[in-house]
Recover the amino acids of this structure.
């Protein structure tokens, strides 16, 4: 090998950089946005691709803030910028100065069409979503057993809800078989009632990486699940159709773990606060009752009882006396009326007349009392009845009194 033209890696990379950057100081490229990742410093890193090729790109924060839209995976974009070589990695990318939408990408258009179809079937209706149990006894996780997302979920559940049973239902989260297996794991969890809530998801990735969670098979399994489902696909900027069908969408798998697990310390603190509140409430009420009852000792209670009872007893006695007086008055009136009646009767009695010296003369022949002298004639026999005894007499003469 002739080493007269030997170059170091840095020398070769620098040659490439000068030639490449000099040849493309300004270029306009159209492609579909993928693997869109905002950095913590505010820059946006992404990949532009078409059917056969891809190129990395970056738009720095000072240019990004002028955009009138939020870039997201699947968008068809037209970008203007310059090529730049990153020597440390031996890669090149396009540094964007301008960016505009050129329409929806093929994947995004497909997803939008599928989203409209499933929404029309009611799979995304808010009314069919189930509440997430606050204190589940068992949590199911449908994700890759090798993924970092599972470890994040397990670590958070261990820290926040150590006593909760965690059932991992392993499934590939990308690739051709992923959707079928993810849907089958959701159905198996329901068939065997393995958990009180399910986390279905994976870590971040490109729009293509997340596609299994937008497959109809998975979306329908999520919507049909009797167990509440929390969708945790990618990071906050990512989205999948399972997010819309799930009962709750979490921005990340870690957030999903926090949403389904009540923090043990927070729960204990809440219980302690509630206990203190109840204790203080009951103590305050007992104290209030004690203060109210304090003036009421036995002597005072007897005095108050008498004060209430005495006027009523007096009124009762007065009423009783009035009633008796009224009865006596009425009885005396009846008694006088009876006496008057008795005297009247006695005054009209024949015995009363006889006592005053009168006698009754009876014709012995007819047995009737003689009232006129014409009722007898000489020779008739008479019975004379004074107050006591009977006198028999014979009529010698009967004539009118002169």
């Amino acid at each position: 090998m002739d080493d007269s033209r030997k170059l170091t890696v840095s020398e070769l990379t620098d040659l490439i950089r000068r030639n490449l950057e000099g040849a493309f100081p300004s270029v306009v490229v159209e492609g579909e946005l993928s693997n869109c990742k905002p950095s913590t410093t505010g820059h946006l890193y992404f990949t532009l691709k078409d059917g056969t090729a891809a190129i990395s790109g970056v738009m720095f924060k000072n240019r990004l803030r002028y955009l009138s839209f939020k870039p997201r995976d699947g968008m068809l974009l037209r970008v203007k910028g310059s090529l730049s070589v990153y020597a440390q990695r031996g890669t090149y990318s396009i540094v964007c100065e301008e960016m505009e939408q050129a329409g929806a990408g093929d994947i995004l258009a497909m997803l939008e069409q599928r989203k409209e179809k499933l929404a029309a079937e009611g799979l995304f209706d808010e009314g069919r979503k189930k509440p997430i149990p606050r204190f589940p006894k068992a949590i199911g996780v449908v994700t890759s057993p090798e993924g970092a997302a599972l470890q994040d979920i397990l670590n958070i559940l261990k820290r926040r809800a150590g006593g909760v049973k965690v059932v991992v239902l392993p499934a590939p989260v990308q690739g051709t078989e992923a959707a079928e297996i993810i849907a089958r794991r959701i159905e198996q969890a329901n068939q065997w009632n393995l958990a009180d809530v399910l986390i279905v998801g994976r870590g971040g990735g490109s729009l293509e990486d997340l596609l299994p969670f937008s497959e109809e098979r998975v979306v329908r399994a999520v919507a049909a699940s009797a167990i509440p489902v929390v969708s945790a696909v990618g990071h906050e900027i990512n989205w999948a159709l399972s997010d819309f069908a799930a009962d709750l969408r979490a921005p990340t798998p870690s957030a999903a773990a926090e949403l389904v697990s009540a923090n043990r310390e927070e729960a204990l603190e809440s219980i302690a606060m509630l206990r203190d509140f109840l204790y203080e409430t009951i103590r305050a009420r007992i104290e209030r009752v004690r203060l109210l009852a304090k003036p009421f000792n036995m002597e005072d209670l007897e005095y108050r009882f008498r004060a209430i009872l005495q006027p009523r007893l007096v009124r009762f006695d007065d009423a009783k006396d009035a009633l008796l007086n009224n009865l006596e008055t009425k009885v005396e009136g009846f008694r006088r009326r009876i006496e008057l009646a008795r005297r009247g009767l006695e005054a009209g009695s024949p015995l009363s007349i006889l006592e005053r010296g009168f006698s009754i003369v009876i014709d012995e022949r007819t047995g009737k009392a003689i009232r006129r002298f014409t009722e007898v004639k000489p020779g008739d026999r008479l019975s004379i009845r004074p107050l006591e005894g009977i006198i028999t007499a014979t009529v010698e003469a009967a004539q009118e009194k002169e």
Q: What stands out?
A: The chain has eleven helices and 13 strands.
